[in-house]
Amino acid sequence: MSAEGERCVVCGAARAEDAEEAMVRCNVRRFRDERFAVWRCAQCRSIHARDAVDLEHYYGGYPVFDAELDWKLRVVYGAMLGRLREAGLGPEHELLDYGCGKGLLLSFLREQGQEHVSGYDRFAEGYDDPQVLGRSYDFIVTQDLIEHVADPHTELKLFDSLLRPGGLISIGTPDADALDLQKPEDFVHALHLPYHRHILAMPALIAAGEKLGWRVVRQYRTMYNNTLVPTMNPRFVLHYVRCHDDVFDLVAEDIRIDSWKLWSPMTLFYAFFGYFFDRHTDIQVIFQKPASPGVQAAAREAS
After folding, report:
1. pTM greater than 0.85 (yes/no)
2. Which 8-state DSSP code applies to residue 148?
3. Buried b / exposed e along 114-150 (16+ C-beta atoms within 10 A)
4. What is the three-class DSSP state of 192?
5. How does pLDDT run across 131-160, given as a tens digit for each residue?
6. Over the stretch 170-189, which tens digit does the pLDDT of each residue have?
């Protein structure tokens, strides 16, 4: 076992000898036959990949880098934008999408009048310029990113340094508490090995933000893509991929109806009512950084 898997990087607890663990297959078609070990911290409930891997290798040809801004993404991005505006995002704010992939959310935000938007993703060509990290922002969006990094606390400190006083940050990520390691195949897409390195439980994420002096503005126990628009909900998407070869690649590919499994009542049921049957495997927390540096310093001292 590598040193990476001996201690929880979220709360610092040592891995217990009887720690809950599982072997999980990769849910990307290219690496489907590979399996990876994970374990759960008994103290904070976070889930960790046990062994180090060459992520540059696995990110080669990553499926979502082939996605396009189509009507489906516009529907779910509209839901995301609604949440951000409810939290306080205005058209005058400078926003950074950290972990932006191809920049599809940025394109959508510009369509909706958010002119001051930037993106950074070290694995995405065109968005890997570190000069973007030399500026400060009113709002940071980091969706499905914190679970991919080697040290979540280091990443959160980086976000804090990029965020102006009083600024807001939205963090979307799987919720470790919702993932049953006794049924790894049932949660293979939320576990998303080997790309997900450390999956935090919601209380652990909130505690990490509060340690930096941030306060919770909004919290959601369902992902922004859980909408009432037919087929635009995670429960239907899960049903759809399972009707084919059950890999993550399908979300970025053209819609297929060549599986006999799709011709079942459950397809229509989840298409229209899947919103009400979300499994709550993903969460979103929006924090606000204190306007006063003194408040933040006091919070850090107290923690």
Report:
1. yes
2. G
3. beebbbbbeebeebeeeebbeeebbbbbbbbbbbbbe
4. coil
5. 999 999 999 999 999 999 999 999 999 999
6. 999 999 999 999 999 999 99
Contacts of 26 (CB under 8 A, 6+ apart): 32, 33, 34, 35, 36, 58, 193, 194
Cα separation, 68 vs 210, in Å, equals 36
The CB density around residue 295, as the number of other CB atoms within 10 Å, is 14
Three state DSSP letters for 53-120: CCHHHHHCCCHHHHCCCCHHHHHHHHHHHHHHHHHCCCCCCCEEEECCCCCHHHHHHHHCCCCCEEEE
User: Is the pLDDT assigned to residue 3 strictly greater than 50?
Assistant: no
Using alpha carbons, select from 76, 90, 9, 83 the residue that is nearest to residue 46.
9
Helices (H), the chain: 55-59, 71-87, 104-111, 152-162, 188-191, 202-211, 234-242, 265-273, 293-302
| Stronger pLDDT, 254 or 219, i.e. the higher one | 219
Cβ contacts of 239 within 8 Å, gap of 6 or more:
266, 267, 270, 274
Class for domain 66-302, per CATH?
alpha beta
Cα(171)–Cα(212) distance, integer angstroms: 14
**Beta-strand relationship, 47-49 and 198-199:** antiparallel
Q: How many Cβ atoms are within 10 Å of 157's Cβ, its own excluded?
A: 14
